[in-house]
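Supplementary Text 2. Reproducibility record for the structural model of the 104-residue chain.

All settings were left at their defaults, and a single model was retained for analysis rather than an ensemble. We include the record here because the model underlies the residue-level annotations in Supplementary Table 4.
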Amino acid sequence: MIDWKQCKCSDFSIDVDLGNIRHVGKQVYFRIHIEHTATGMEAHTMNESIERDLYTELMMRPDGAERILDIMAERVRREINRLIQQAAVPWEERKQFQGKKRSL
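Retained model, structure tokens:
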């Protein structure tokens, strides 16, 4: 299990699942696997999309796939930062709220 509080973005790499690139309406969806580089463990999986017109435009360029990976990497960095922040509250503290209710 990944201890997100001890992680930074540079601890991870991404891999696009080639079998799951899909055109849906005006979007192109990618399934991205995020790997914790030090352990080789898959840390997280997410779906990301870009507009189909942007995808088509980028894929006409010789470096199109690299540019798309740059876009995906930036989005993954934001997601990793969200996960790190989300893990900031220890489970012991969160557990204190279990079963507590308030009337509105």
